[in-house]
Amino acid sequence: ALANIGVVGLAVMGSNLARNLASREGNTVAVYNRSRSKTDELVAEHPEAGFIPAFSYEEFAASLSKPRTAIIMVKAGRPTDAVIDSLVEVFEPGDIIVDGGNAYFPDTIRREKAVRETGINFVGAGISGGEEGALTGPSIMPGGSDESWVTLGPILKSIAAVAEGEPCVTHVGHDGAGHFVKMVHNGIEYADMQLIAEAYDLIRRGTGKTPAEIADVFAEWNKGELESYLIEITAEVLRQVDAETGKPLVDVILDQAGAKGTGAWTVQTALALGVPVSGIAEATFARSLSSHPEQRAVAASLPGPDEEFRVDDVDGFIEDVRQALFASKIIAYSQGFDEIRAGAAEYNWTIDLGAVSKIWRAGCIIRAQFLNRIADAYAEQPDLPVLATAPYFAEALTRGQAAWRRVVVAATQAGIPSPAFSSSLAYYDGIRAERLPAALVQGQRDFFGAHTYKRIDKEGTFHTQWSGDRTEIEAEDTH
Ligand code: NBP
């Protein structure tokens, strides 16, 4: 028999995805890996999967029914290009090549364009949820053509995570849309994690509670509006005791956060699009700051506030931090969805933002009940300009803003860094401001560069003759 789906690249992600595919009714899975040993191992260890192993690209192509459909799970970058080139050689027009790796979306746009010229479909699909997700059900964000979705849709639906009866996969948009949305997902994940870390730090340093006690706080929070996978695992991490030293594990882990670059992509892309994703940016920078021990060792001599930080009303403070966390989280998601909206406009993708929020409800790291509220908001108003202004979120911000301000003030006075809390609050105050000091910036720009300005009271573009008699003239618009 022929396989209806193939997987190329049988490291941890690919072999788990292949096993997931094989476990679903109706799928027969062909597998190929550059070095034969991984293929042999997978096939030997999982006879139940009924894999059809291939040991060359020709054999792989011959083992697939038409239209041939293959998911590539190899190292992002050149390896992906190498595999695509090899598959294009042995596939035919109408066949479908899916890149399930963590590609940078401009690469996906480039690859889609090149592969399309051969008549073969190319789909960049963001696959979230790590190793476990790949095996048990990931959240999947495919881009690519409508034609490819006809064949690919049912296959991806068969393996995706399920949230409230719905598979966590949707055809996000054409060419690179899927990888773009996966990138922003990761950026939001950075912000979510940093916000949680700041909440922990403030509670620990403000109340003197132990990590295990703070684990209880997070476990409690997980029963309310903050309910999410990340809050849940935070409690688990904080409760963990190091076997060697008997100390809380969090106290023996080196405080230098790593990153694989997707947060930086999200921020770079946002900068290029002119979208202020300040929460994600601060979260990304916070990891960078943490990872410079040489600078931190030197800067440790700089002074902080004189007084020690201790809150009087412990329960009140913890509730304030909870509110600040929820408010900041709303802003981080609002900014992330703003980036997706702007990316869709820039790259001509039609992206259903509500559908995106729904496929993140399971099978990915930011999974949470909260995402239903985002779906509701976009169902109510698909062209919502600022997610945070949707009734549910606006109400939460109205309720939480006083606590949020108290927490940022307390953190500032205590000398506890809270870049994500405070930048989210600054965004909130900026976006809701009736008038911004951007007017002064425009005046400065006109002064030194004759960049001109617009007026609030009449049409046209103006310039003040700063080096002359300082009269205003009508000018050509040069921004
Ligand atoms: P790796 O990223 O470690 O890649 C190893 C695989 O790439 C092996 O199968 C290897 O074949 C193959 N490969 C390489 Br390297 N160069 C190749 C080439 N020139 N031609 C053909 N094959 C080549 O695997 P992974 O950790 O399973 O990740 C796979 C993808 O999934 C990556 O893009 C990664 O970023 C992504 N990922 C996503 C998540 C997530 O949470 N969504 C988690 C982890 C990874 P070999 O066996 O012959 O060396």
UniProtKB/TrEMBL annotation:
<comment type="function">
    <text>Catalyzes the oxidative decarboxylation of 6-phosphogluconate to ribulose 5-phosphate and CO(2), with concomitant reduction of NADP to NADPH.</text>
</comment>
<dbReference type="InterPro" id="IPR006115">
    <property type="entry name" value="6PGDH_NADP-bd"/>
</dbReference>
<feature type="binding site">
    <location>
        <position position="445"/>
    </location>
    <ligand>
        <name>substrate</name>
    </ligand>
</feature>
<protein>
    <recommendedName>
        <fullName>6-phosphogluconate dehydrogenase, decarboxylating</fullName>
        <ecNumber>1.1.1.44</ecNumber>
    </recommendedName>
</protein>
<feature type="binding site">
    <location>
        <position position="451"/>
    </location>
    <ligand>
        <name>substrate</name>
    </ligand>
</feature>
<feature type="binding site" description="in other chain">
    <location>
        <position position="260"/>
    </location>
    <ligand>
        <name>substrate</name>
    </ligand>
</feature>
<dbReference type="GO" id="GO:0050661">
    <property type="term" value="F:NADP binding"/>
</dbReference>
<feature type="binding site" description="in other chain">
    <location>
        <position position="287"/>
    </location>
    <ligand>
        <name>substrate</name>
    </ligand>
</feature>
<dbReference type="InterPro" id="IPR013328">
    <property type="entry name" value="6PGD_dom2"/>
</dbReference>
<feature type="binding site">
    <location>
        <begin position="9"/>
        <end position="14"/>
    </location>
    <ligand>
        <name>NADP(+)</name>
    </ligand>
</feature>
<feature type="binding site" description="in other chain">
    <location>
        <position position="102"/>
    </location>
    <ligand>
        <name>substrate</name>
    </ligand>
</feature>
<comment type="similarity">
    <text>Belongs to the 6-phosphogluconate dehydrogenase family.</text>
</comment>
<feature type="binding site" description="in other chain">
    <location>
        <begin position="185"/>
        <end position="186"/>
    </location>
    <ligand>
        <name>substrate</name>
    </ligand>
</feature>
<keyword id="KW-0311">Gluconate utilization</keyword>
<dbReference type="GO" id="GO:0019521">
    <property type="term" value="P:D-gluconate metabolic process"/>
</dbReference>
<feature type="binding site" description="in other chain">
    <location>
        <begin position="128"/>
        <end position="130"/>
    </location>
    <ligand>
        <name>substrate</name>
    </ligand>
</feature>
<feature type="binding site">
    <location>
        <begin position="74"/>
        <end position="76"/>
    </location>
    <ligand>
        <name>NADP(+)</name>
    </ligand>
</feature>
<feature type="binding site">
    <location>
        <begin position="33"/>
        <end position="35"/>
    </location>
    <ligand>
        <name>NADP(+)</name>
    </ligand>
</feature>
<feature type="binding site" description="in other chain">
    <location>
        <position position="190"/>
    </location>
    <ligand>
        <name>substrate</name>
    </ligand>
</feature>
<comment type="pathway">
    <text>Carbohydrate degradation; pentose phosphate pathway; D-ribulose 5-phosphate from D-glucose 6-phosphate (oxidative stage): step 3/3.</text>
</comment>
<dbReference type="Pfam" id="PF03446">
    <property type="entry name" value="NAD_binding_2"/>
</dbReference>
<dbReference type="InterPro" id="IPR036291">
    <property type="entry name" value="NAD(P)-bd_dom_sf"/>
</dbReference>
<dbReference type="GO" id="GO:0004616">
    <property type="term" value="F:phosphogluconate dehydrogenase (decarboxylating) activity"/>
</dbReference>
<feature type="domain" description="6-phosphogluconate dehydrogenase C-terminal">
    <location>
        <begin position="178"/>
        <end position="467"/>
    </location>
</feature>
<dbReference type="InterPro" id="IPR008927">
    <property type="entry name" value="6-PGluconate_DH-like_C_sf"/>
</dbReference>
<feature type="active site" description="Proton donor">
    <location>
        <position position="189"/>
    </location>
</feature>
<dbReference type="Pfam" id="PF00393">
    <property type="entry name" value="6PGD"/>
</dbReference>
<feature type="binding site">
    <location>
        <position position="102"/>
    </location>
    <ligand>
        <name>NADP(+)</name>
    </ligand>
</feature>
<comment type="subunit">
    <text>Homodimer.</text>
</comment>
<keyword id="KW-0521">NADP</keyword>
<keyword id="KW-0570">Pentose shunt</keyword>
<dbReference type="InterPro" id="IPR006113">
    <property type="entry name" value="6PGDH_Gnd/GntZ"/>
</dbReference>
<dbReference type="InterPro" id="IPR006114">
    <property type="entry name" value="6PGDH_C"/>
</dbReference>
<dbReference type="GO" id="GO:0006098">
    <property type="term" value="P:pentose-phosphate shunt"/>
</dbReference>
<feature type="active site" description="Proton donor">
    <location>
        <position position="182"/>
    </location>
</feature>
<keyword id="KW-0560">Oxidoreductase</keyword>
<dbReference type="InterPro" id="IPR006183">
    <property type="entry name" value="Pgluconate_DH"/>
</dbReference>
